[in-house]
Specification:
Two copies of one chain form a homodimer. Chain A is α/β, with parallel strands linked by helices. Chain A folds into two domains: 4-173, HUPs (Rossmann fold, 3-Layer(aba) Sandwich), CATH 3.40.50.620; 186-278, Pantoate--beta-alanine Ligase, Chain: A,domain 2 (2-Layer Sandwich), CATH 3.30.1300.10. Chain A has helices at 8-15, 35-47, 65-70, 75-85, 95-98, 117-120, 124-139, 151-164, 193-199, 201-214, 220-228; strands spanning 4-5, 25-29, 51-55, 89-91, 105-109, 143-147, 169-173, 236-244, 259-267, 270-278. In chain A, α2 links the parallel β2 and β3. At the A-B interface, β5, α7 and α8 of A face β5, α7 and α8 of B.
Chain lengths: 279, 279
């Protein structure tokens, strides 16, 4: 069995013998692990030992309490997946362990968080940046790995590390997809069978947008209209679907590569996001 | 001569051989070093080696551009004082080294910063917390020392370290005073001789407030009126003079110990702060 630490003191003690060798790898997660997380752990173990996986559903980053409540929790299967993927240690703290009193200190990344998920989910990225700062101080990893599916989150973490001089190297890992193209997400498990079939429309729309850009289309409005039409499905609500500058994470009117095409939709009650980088 | 590093890479390399021994001491300063800073360094060297002093006038924590411009800078005499007090290394970065692009990531401590200097100087403590977080990530000290003269700043740093799980022990060092009681401050050098004579009224008022509390007075309004009367001097403007809960840094109406008596005044163009803890 993979060792699990539930306390901050416990994980710090467990990591003590491994410090100063410059190769602690860290994969922060909210649990409900899937093949996307497995990929993060596999990439980590190629360059790091030990690889530490944290499992913590962070209340601070949920803008909707019911989304927090509904978020899947299954420690046993998560431990099995982490171990099988090559992790050496799991940190699974409780909420009171991470927030013994009301959180009063926040890390905020401005600019990058004005649009897209930052606009749709007030306080979300502040919660993400704050908990990642805490986890970095607890684990003190040399390398931390994040998935490209959450492109804006990745940009926020990279900016935070750069601006605050965290001594941590950030590694971005490509999105893992189902055979039909749907990006893996813990939230996919909530989809009913018909919703699951519908959900792939987000990938189709992003792929269409990328084709248009690669074919020379530069007008973001046209791209939004033509590719976004694939999202007009029963049961689908569009949160955003747009073209963004990877440096600023702001919408651009001219889609000159490199740009992200990014989308967030709600399929029934489940919010899904995805993106493609067009070089 | 004491070694000085001007770059982040430079100080990290210089500290590399000292890491993992658990005894890097750190005294962050804005330069214009005086006997108060010397005390911080002396306390540091009793428990740490090496002791690193940073000298950086942090633009992010100045709410008034002219205050930033006027802030004294004299690296040569600062280096001599740091060396004579027992420091082994100085980190003196430029502003572009610390902020190569516009700062977009901020550390904010709420609650503790609502009153007193937090209210008088918008953005000040956000600037302090942000630069201290950066410096902690650059130096990675085991121990960092701060003066009690800046009681609210000390509370903010302690809260930040606690909330964000920084692996740094914070040591508070008592205020060093002139023979007449005036708290040492880099800003004292700006006082004209008559202003210098007037400035001690802040210490007198705080001492009077403490006497009242120790004599059993519990009404903050009475304390403010009676002790604050000593601040009614020509050329003195009162910013605040009040009784505060050390845990929340909020004003209290009942002065039941432990409480801080805290004051900020402007003597001519120079802003001075001081406090006494009444146990």
């Amino acid at each position: 069995m993979i060792p699990v630490e539930h306390t901050i003191d416990g994980i710090r003690k467990a990591l003590e013998p491994h410090r100063h060798r410059g190769s602690i790898g860290f994969v922060p997660t909210m649990g409900a692990l899937h093949a996307g997380h497995a990929r993060l752990i596999e990439v980590a173990r190629e360059q790091c030992k030990p690889v530490v996986v944290s499992i913590f559903v962070n209340p601070l980053q949920f803008d909707q309490p019911e989304d927090f409540e509904r978020y899947q929790r299954n420690l046993e299967s998560d431990l099995a997946l982490a171990a099988n993927s090559g992790a050496q240690m799991v940190f699974a703290p409780s909420a009171p362990e991470m927030y013994p009193s009301q959180a009063e200190t926040f890390v905020e990344v401005q600019g990058l968080t004005q649009h897209f998920c930052g606009a749709s989910r007030p306080g979300h990225f502040r919660g993400v940046a704050t908990v990642v700062a805490k986890l970095f101080h607890i684990i003190q990893p040399d390398v931390a790995l994040f998935g490209e599916k959450d492109a804006q989150q990745l940009a926020v973490i990279e900016r935070m590390v750069l601006n605050l001089n965290f001594p941590v190297a950030i590694v971005a890992v490509p999105t893992v997809r189902e055979p039909d193209g749907l990006a893996l997400s813990s939230r996919n498990a909530r989809l009913a069978p018909d919703e699951r079939r519908t959900a792939v429309c987000l990938y189709h729309a992003l792929t269409r947008a990328r084709e248009l850009i690669h074919a020379g289309e530069r007008d973001s409005h046209t791209i939004r209209e033509q590719a976004g039409a694939l999202l007009l499905q029963p049961g689908v609500q569009i949160d955003y679907f747009d073209v963004a500058d990877p440096k600023t994470m702001c919408p651009v009117s001219t889609a000159g590569p490199p740009v992200y095409v990014m989308g967030a939709i709600r399929v029934g009650a489940t919010r899904l996001i995805d993106n493609l980088l067009c070089r």
